[in-house]
Specification:
The complex is a heterodimer of chains A (280) and B (186).
Chain A: E1 2-5, H1 6-22, H2 26-38, H3 42-61, E2 71-79, E3 82-85, H4 89-103, E4 127-133, E5 138-145, H5 147-150, E6 154-158, H6 163-178, E7 186-193, H7 196-206, H8 218-231, E8 247-255, E9 262-269, E10 275-279
Parallel strand pairs in A: 1-3, 2-4, 7-8
Antiparallel strand pairs in A: 2-5, 5-10, 6-9, 7-9
Helix pairs in contact in A: 1-4, 2-3
Chain B: E1 3-7, H1 12-16, E2 23-32, H2 35-46, E3 59-61, H3 89-94, E4 99-102, H4 108-116, E5 120-123, H5 129-133, E6 136-143, E7 152-166, H6 173-181
Parallel strand pairs in B: 1-2, 2-3, 3-4, 4-5
Antiparallel strand pairs in B: 2-7, 5-7, 6-7
Classes of the chains: A alpha/beta (280), B alpha/beta (186).
Domain Fe-S hydro-lyase tartrate dehydratase beta-type catalytic (chain B): 4-176
GO molecular function, one term (chain B): hydro-lyase activity
Keywords (chain B): Lyase
Chain lengths: 280, 186
């Protein structure tokens, strides 16, 4: 059994929250640069250029690349052979978020009550999922999920007879409806199967995979490519200003499901695609 | 790419000079306001109370900035999704508001009101809050400080880059632009 103290978790969470807001991942920078070469519209090229400039300013001056520094979402993989000491895992994460967002001058975007809408003032609570895995390590994956793109996400309980065609129609319809609202170029996370809530979970989780990295299963990987190409034929373009770069990637995850069911969830991610991870 | 320069506040003439798809550099003062702020303004309108801000010729920027670091004028300050303010916008336009800066679609009621009241809807680049913060020269909280990032702020912007999406002639740049690049059967 390996001990991991809660203070170590908190410290790492503080650093991840801040770094996510200031340092856009290399996968995203590469994706901007390569779409700048293929983008047909002048206004679209201009948007992509400004997004690269924006990322540079954010990194150099430690200013959030986007003012919506998001809801803090954590996907934790906890080894069966590791033990958290000194406190509670969820508390440790929330403390890290509170400190990370506060000290980093990040925006507090969480309201305590969805009806009264009073801000909690420290961007907590975080949304934390824990999965148990083999080993003695604790892997913490973090995403700062902005509201604009998240609001354009959708879920539908399709019929098995709707098949692949029905799924594709739903995905494309979702991208079209999201349009400029989701701050394109976007990344489209698709969860197929599981149950009502599982499909949403795997759709969001699929977005953790770096942009440009295909699904390990050939069949899913080719679907990702095909749908990405279809997204880019919608004409929406960077920021919805028209163009050939609507999606930088499509990510798909699948999960076994009930004989009567075909749940499909589409979780849209804006170009401020903030992911950080650490393994303790 | 050609850009138009416009000084705020807006007038009928300035609005009529702007066409969907125009790249514009805006300079002058705008109000920052978003969801809960709009709800509060609307509640006052409903009971015929005076608003805490004058809207004649004004532009509202839909933004909830991050807190400024010491020595900074404002934190990251990009546009938020405008559609969430659609419910309140026609009433504000009827009280003299001339323009909005945000990002994303407006509904049919707002587009109609933009034509009726001779106004304009601009989009700034969503998610470019670090870059846009450099175009803001002054910030002060006017009212509703308790709302944190949603408080009404007075911002002085300089050469702030936007694109005209909905003009006073009924054009919609999002629709027009997508049609140009749309390919094949979808």
């Amino acid at each position: 059994m390996r001990d991991i103290h809660v203070d170590t978790i908190t410290e790492n969470v503080v650093a991840m929250c801040q770094s996510a807001s200031f340092d856009l991942g290399d996968d995203m920078i590469r994706a901007f640069q390569s779409s700048l070469k293929t983008e047909k519209s002048e206004i679209g090229q201009d948007v992509l250029t400004q997004l690269l400039d924006n990322a540079e300013i954010a990194e150099q001056e430690r200013i959030p690349m986007c003012q919506d520094t998001g809801v803090a979402v954590f996907f934790i993989e906890m080894g069966y052979d590791c033990k958290i000491t000194g406190g509670d895992l969820y508390d440790a994460i929330n403390q890290g978020v509170s400190q990370g967002y506060g000290d980093g001058y990040l925006r507090q975007s969480i309201v305590r009550d969805p009806l009264d809408r009073k801000n909690t003032g420290d961007n907590t609570p975080a949304i934390t999922y824990v999965e148990m895995v083999e080993g003695d390590q604790l892997r913490i994956r973090f995403t700062a999920k902005g509201g604009g793109a998240e609001n354009m996400s959708r879920l539908q309980m399709l019929k098995p007879s709707d098949g692949l065609e029905g799924i594709e129609d739903f995905v494309m319809e979702s991208v079209r409806l999201a349009g400029p609202n989701a701050c394109p170029p976007m990344i489209v996370g698709v969860g197929i199967g599981g149950s009502f809530e599982k499909s949403a979970y795997i759709a969001k989780k699929s977005l953790l995979r770096p942009v440009g990295e295909r699904h390990e299963e050939e069949r899913i990987a080719s679907l990702e490519e095909e749908w990405m190409e279809k997204c880019n034929r919608l004409g929406i373009g960077p920021q919805g200003m028209g163009g050939t770069t609507t999606a930088l990637d499509v990510k798909i995850e699948v999960h076994p499901c009930h004989i009567a069911a075909l749940p499909v969830a589409v979780n849209i991610q804006c170009h401020a695609n903030r992911h950080k991870e650490v393994t303790l | 790419m050609a850009q138009k320069r416009v000084t705020l506040p807006l007038t009928d003439e300035k609005v009529q000079y702007l066409k969907a798809g125009d790249r514009v550099l805006l300079s002058g003062d705008v109000y920052a306001a978003r969801d809960t702020t709009h709800k509060r303004l609307m509640e006052r309108i409903e009971v015929n109370e005076e608003l805490p801000i004058q809207l004649e010729g004004e532009v509202i920027y839909y933004v909830g900035p991050t807190p400024a670091k010491p020595g900074q004028i404002i934190g990251s300050a990009g546009p938020t999704t405008s559609g969430r303010m659609d419910k309140y916008t026609p009433a504000l336009l009827s009280r003299g508001l001339k323009g909005m800066i945000g990002k994303g679609y407006r509904n049919d009621e707002v587009k109609a009101a933009i034509q009726t009241y001779n106004a304009v809807y601009f989009a700034a680049i969503g998610g470019s809050g670090a870059l846009l913060s450099k175009k803001i020269q002054f910030e002060t909280i006017v009212v509703y400080e308790d709302l944190g990032p949603e408080a009404i702020r007075r911002l002085t912007i300089n050469d702030f880059p936007v694109t005209v999406i909905n003009d006073c002639y009924g054009n919609d740049w999002y629709e027009q632009a997508a049609e140009v690049y749309q390919k094949g059967k979808l």
